[in-house]
Amino acid sequence: MSIPSFFTPPVSDGGDRPLLAGGVSNPQDGGVLLACTIRDIARAAGVSVTTVSLVLRGKECRISEETRAKVQQTAREMHYVPNQVAVSLVTKKTNTIGLVYSDMLNPFYAEMAAGLERSAHLHDYGLLICNCDEQVERCIDNISLLESRCIDGFVLQPPETINASPSRLHALQEKLKACTTPYVILDRAIHDVYHDYVAADHQLGGRLAAEHLVRLGHTRIGCITGSLSDYGSKRRLAGYREVLEAHGIPYDPSLVYEGLYQIESGYRGTCELLKKDITAIFAFSDLIAVGVQRAATEFGISIPHDLSLVGYDDSSIAPLCSVPLTTIRQPIELLGRQACEILLARIQNPAKEHVDYFYPPALIQRSSCSLPRANPAPLL
Q1: Model confidence, pTM
Q2: Burial class (CB in 10 A: 0-12, 13-18, 19+), 106
Q3: Handedness of CA 94, 100, 105, 110 (dihedral sign)
Q4: % of the chain residues with pLDDT over 90
Q5: Over the stretch 308-345, which tens digit does the pLDDT of each residue have?
Q6: What CATH number is given for 202-330 in this structure?
Q7: Where are the domains positioned within the chain?
Q8: Dihedral angle at the C-alpha atoms of 273, 274, 279, 285, nearest 10 degrees?
């Protein structure tokens, strides 16, 4: 049951103590407003409790528009808020969904969560957000926490290294297989679990990045990846390799630095790759690209004149980099919104067929790429 639109939030009386959600004054408690009930509204409006209940629940019944408006106005003035716990006992629903995601400090995930929340809000659902800080154990604990709150469903964006540890992967698989709460997996696939799934087409994204650099004339392209146990990183690398093969460029595994989707990995990877004769770097996330730019600045290397750079995500930081970043755009907010829509459909129909949604990324050109430098010797 959603809160009708005519309700307004409780207000303060100007004192130090917060007011509760009702509008019934208790003089013996210093004038603090106490939570009002439908009986209080009925008394104030001069109607029956049944009439108030029918109006506030939006039931179609033989109640005059005048009486209906009076009840709604009285509820507003008394700052009535329905007791969601009591409603949930009757409806067996909480109108709340959860989100378990891997890194709340990463702007990519923050933007994705924003899209999910906006979609939930449009459907009168609340959202509980849990951060697992890239830890599988915390991910499992957060799922248990959401289940204990009797949420209607949740969206899970698993940790980056979930597939790197067989024992931890198995623990999460078993948790999800035993889970009776509807859920959707976002961005990172989990093998051997039957679920709805939403992600970008990362292999296409890898092809777009590599094709852009190759068309500029680059043939020695370094890659700084996330964990290669991660589905997205593997697919981006596969797309990169497809382009090299299509253009007859040999694949050199020494030009691939495996890290994490973090600034530090971008910095460390750049320090290693600059010892080789690369002319460009494909960073597998915008955060990694920030680390690349930091290292380039430290070593006096000009982007794009000495080194071209392509990122991935087109998060909010991409146009704000010291050199505005050419990057692969994922439809970040759309991914969050679509995950929410699929979850709500799953809640309404738990038996429906599971779906996979893959969204095409796009190349966004800014200022971080140019033709290869004339002397391709190592920069360090």
Answers
A1: 0.80
A2: buried
A3: negative
A4: 75
A5: 999 999 999 999 999 999 999 999 999 999 999 999 99
A6: 3.40.50.2300
A7: 38-82, 94-200+332-360, 202-330
A8: 50
